[in-house]
Amino acid sequence: MDAQAEKTAAGPGPWLVASAAESDLTGPTGSDLYLELSLNGNPQGLVHFGLRDRELWASASTLRQLGFVLPPGASDPVRLNSLPGVKVAYDAARQSVAINAPADVLRLPTTVVNTSTVASPRASASPGLLLNYDLYGTQGRGNSTSLNALAEVRAFSGSSVFTSTMMSRAYRSDNEDWKHDSVRLDTTWSQSFPDDMLTLRVGDTTTASLPWSRSTRIGGIQLSRNFSLQPYRTTTPLPAFLGSATLPSQVELYINGLRQYTGQVPAGPFQLNTVPSINGAGNAQVVLTDAFGRATTLDFSLYDTQRLLQEGLSDWSVDLGMVRRNYGLRSNDYGSDPAATGTWRYGVSNSFTLEAHGETTKGLVKGGVGGAWLIGQSGVFTGAVAHSSYRGEQGSLLNLGYSWRDNQFNFAVEGTRTRGEYRDVASLYGSAPARGSGRASIGYTTKDLGSFGLSYLYLRYPAQEATRMASVYWFRAIGKSASMNVSLNQNLDNRRERSLFVGFTWALDGNITASAGVQRDNGKTVYTADAQSSMPGDGGIGWRAGLRQGGGQNGGQAEIDYLGRYGRAMAGISVLGDNRFAYAGATGSIAFMGGQPFAARRIDDAFAVVSTDGIAGVPVRLENRDIGTTDDKGMLLVAPLRSYQNNQLSIDPMQLPADVRIERVKTVATPSDRAGTLVRFGITPVSAAALLLVDEAGKPLPLGSRVRANAQGGEPALVGFDGAVYLESLQARNTLDVQTPNGVCRTSFDYRKEGAAIPQIGPLRCTREAKAP
After folding, report:
1. d(Cα 330, Cα 204) in Å, to the nearest integer?
2. For this UniProt entry, which residues form the secretion signal (predicted)?
3. Which residues of 535-564 are buried (b: 16+ CB within 10 A; e: fewer)?
């Protein structure tokens, strides 16, 4: 068979085009070969070689197409064994050849491996309503009483959410008449666009800000980037770990000694992109293990920070509206002049993020630029400059900062200074920006002596004296169940303002924690002792009690808490000096979805309503954790869920009646932000029966006989052992046509279901059809 015929017979494959030089592969006495090639363990298909004196030759063009880097002036064709470091294993019986070549001889494509491969799920929300409530009341001396309520009303459908919050208070003292007041807090409608990571808000909102600017409450419109709409997307720069594998290998990534990823890479260079689970400096190791079990370790240093954006990624917000005044005191108090603000961040590179912020209102224009720089492994430097003009008066701002941290050491310093009459929108309705502010902190963690830290704070407002505070702390774990901490705070402008605290904490059996401490503050000494048992996360009772002695506030406090399926309740009593009162409170929610109301714990994010199509008592699981059972209408509210993320819900099919068909026992719920979604498992009742079919002599019909009920189409049912057959979709009166090896027979029966069990019917005599004369 000639070469072209061999190619045609072999079918499609990674064929290499023959060059003119291939006519010289065999020489005067050699032979042409088309061999199945394996290059560093990677199959390459059939490749043309020449065999001379028991050695393989290949054309230069073929080798270059395979990725070989040939030395200058190399002969054409090329004797494979003449290439440096190349090993050739020719198997004449199998008509194959395995070539192993060092990485520096090959130029292979780079394999890029991304460790985060979760695709953004499609979110959904069913129409519904939700009421979150928080109730709190006190009873003190002299019949002094207060009742407080905070409520949130939320309506949602799809990716749209309307929410309104309100606070009410009623109170009286010394047997006076009741007084009450209510105030609306926020009313907002929002629409999200997950594919574009955008959210539009209309109503009460807070303007976006940067670390060197201030936000403002407004009533108006906001359009902003919202990364939480795609929570599986990584917005910070991904460290890239580069290497090269001579053979197909297993790659493992360790960050600070903890394995973060394991997978496979083919031969050739590779790039491993990953999300490090650190904040600050760290060390990474990439371990390559090839097919022969040989391991190679590559060491890297890395620095990760949440302040940066990935290269080419932008984060922004545009806000327009009236500034909100007297928030929490008045319901509808807005400024008369519209204000506009804009905030923008852009990843110029993976080590530099540019920032910009601007504001304007009547008589005011303010703008500034800044950025965050990752200086290799040496930490993050931040800075910004801004300028304002308000009614002809100019002002400026300068902000500088630097931070570095690793597992043991951390250091941060930042300062902001304003000059002239620097103003922003917030200052026109409240306090002016500080003239100067600064902070510095340093901390160190040791293995045996615990953690140490020192911090400094500086703050000065216009027309006020500067405040300078310094603090130092020490913390150390004692064994596995105890710890001790010491902290000292000192006002550097007033030596008498000093506080010292020493505390001990013990973790006891039964989820009980006890603590004791002593505090020296402004010449007074206070002793405290506390004990508490936290509420279990899945519900139960918790409590806490404390005593206080000294400083004119002798007394104590006791409280008991209960967390149930429908909310949280608490009650307690406080006696400190002359201040004595009892208190009680409750938090929870009421949702209306799927045609009925549900009582639940407070729901701040998303939830789901599971429907088992009217079947009560079915256990439901969230992420393989029991969450409850469906009510008498076959419904259950499941909360909290993570919005725009995969939340796995499942049911126990063993608790379902036998006469139902179920499409799935597991599903993924992905609700949108602050909304609920209706989840069904495709449960439908079936009219089914188990039949026993016999022939005219009373013997079971033959195994494999084919049964059709009521002339229905589709695949027929098959008769099993002892003439048994299972049928669904039955009617009150049914006729069966049965194809047996001896011909066709027919029988009929009435179907009537009693109870939840599948009825057993038969034996039914199947009579042969009379032959036509």
Report:
1. 13
2. none
3. beeeeeebbbebebeebeeeebbebebbbe
> Which ranges of 417-572 does DSSP label H, i.e. alpha helix?
none
Separation CA 406–CA 392 (nearest Å): 47
CA dist 290 and 295 (Å) reads 7
Count of Cβ atoms closer than 10 Å to residue 125 Cβ: 24
3-state secondary structure of 404: strand
Per-residue DSSP letters for 202-256? EEEEE----TTS---EEEEEEEEE-GGGSTTS--SPPPEEEEEESS-EEEEEEET
Q: Which domains does the chain have, with CATH numbers?
A: 3-107 (3.10.20.410), 117-156+534-685 (2.60.40.2610), 240-304 (2.60.40.3110), 689-768 (2.60.40.2070)
DSSP string, 651-705: E-GGGS-TTEEES-SEEEE-B-TT-EEEEE--EEE---EEEEEE-TTSPBPPTT-
Residue 681 backbone class (left: φ over 0; alpha: ψ -120 to 50; beta: rest): alpha
d(CA 243, CA 269): 6
Structure tokens at 572: 């307690």
- pTM for this one? 0.77
Strand 606-611 with 676-680, pairing? parallel
Torsion 287-289-293-296 (CA) sign? negative
Burial class (CB in 10 A: 0-12, 13-18, 19+), 656: buried
> Tens of pLDDT along 472-495?
999 999 988 899 999 999 999 888
What is the number of other CB atoms lying within 10 angstroms of the CB of residue 298?
Answer: 16
Alpha-carbon gap, residue 17 to 47, rounded angstroms = 9
CA distance 679 to 673: 16
Q: What is the mean pLDDT of residues 700-708?
A: 92
Other C-beta atoms lying within 10 Å of the C-beta of residue 712:
11
Cross-strand partners of 367: 358, 387
pLDDT digits (tens, 9 = 90+) for 138-187: 998 777 899 999 999 999 998 899 999 999 999 988 778 888 999 999 99
Res 18 pLDDT > 70: no
531 in Cβ contact with 520 (< 8 Å): no
The candidate with the shortest Cα–Cα distance to 630, out of 614, 613, 617, is 617
β-bridge pairing 198-206 and 179-193: antiparallel
Percent of the chain with pLDDT over 90: 50
Looking at 567-675, which runs of residues are DSSP E strands? 567-576, 579-593, 596-600, 606-611, 619-622, 625-629, 635-641, 647-651, 660-662, 666-669
Number of H helices, E strands in the chain: 2, 55
Instruction: Find, among 727, 768, 767, 724, the residue nearest to 751 by Cα.
Output: 727
Host H or E run for residue 364: strand 364-374
Task: For the chain, give the number of residues.
Answer: 773
Copy the structure tokens of residue 600.
């639940």
**Closest of 735, 733, 737 to residue 719, by C-alpha:** 737
Cα–Cα distance for residue pair 393/421, rounded to 1 Å: 6
Give the C-alpha separation, 383 to 371, whole Å. 6
φ/ψ bin of 714: left (φ > 0), alpha (ψ from -120 to 50), beta (otherwise): left
Interval 672-677 mean pLDDT: 92
Cβ atoms 382, 402 nearer than 8 A: yes
Task: Pick the closest to residue 285 from 300, 296, 304, 269 (CA basis).
Answer: 300
Cβ-Cβ contacts under 8 Å for 108 (sequence gap 6 or more): 67, 267, 268, 269
With beta carbons less than 8 A apart as the criterion, state whether 761 and 689 touch.
yes
Backbone phi, psi, residue 464, to 5°: -130, 155
